[in-house]
Amino acid sequence: MKIKNIFFGLYSQLRSIILIFLNLFAKRETRLYPESALNLSSRYRGRIILTRDLKGNERCVACNLCSAVCPTDCIEVKKSEKKNGRWYAKSFKINFSRCIFCGLCEEACPTAAIQLIPDIELSDFSKKYLIYKKKDLLISGPGKYHDYDFYSVSGVNINDNLKNNSSEKILNTVDTTSLLP
Ligand code: SF4
Ligand code: SF4
């Protein structure tokens, strides 16, 4: 029994030495982040942004669906209304110290306003800096969904277009077959 243990111990030591020696010549997997950039998938769910439509208007209509669906209750939206009846978020906050980057808010959003992007650089030294306000979240462009314009198919703009008898044109902008599997 003891001799068997001695042989097993020697084998184990030799195997470890050989593996270490072989790894000296293997390709290094360690990344020297942040000097060396990480290659994240374009579908990676990281930092959350609020986007604008093609006309530069804020896409968010303060419907609160993202806040309602969020499993960690980390989104707070306060609604306000413009003179033309269009709703917008007067205040929009996300607590990134509670967010689990599940993407449900993006799934629920009817206007494609809220989007998760492949940005992982969110760490900070204090939790209070992880509460992002609207000015930190809102970007100047449309994000991932370049062509989507909620107000061309719904909302206050459609009333104006219906008055101008261009409803047929509006309906043609939606390809319902694209929603099929
Ligand atoms: S990604 Fe998930 S946890 Fe984070 S804000 Fe959206 S719904 Fe909430
Ligand atoms: S981000 Fe989308 S789901 Fe959330 S309040 Fe704005 S429009 Fe509604």
Strand content is 5-15%
Overall mean pLDDT stands at: 87
Distinct compounds present: iron/sulfur cluster
Which consecutive residue ranges, at least 5 long each, have pLDDT under 50? none
* CATH architecture annotation of the domain at 48-160: 2-Layer Sandwich
Give the number of helices.
Answer: 6
Characterize the structure shown:
With 181 residues, the chain is of the alpha+beta class. The chain has a domain of 113 residues: Alpha-Beta Plaits (2-Layer Sandwich). 28% of the residues lie in helices and 13% in strands. The model has no long low-confidence stretch (mean pLDDT 87). NDH-1 is composed of 13 different subunits. Subunits NuoA, H, J, K, L, M, N constitute the membrane sector of the complex. One of its GO terms (molecular function) is quinone binding. It is a peripheral membrane protein.
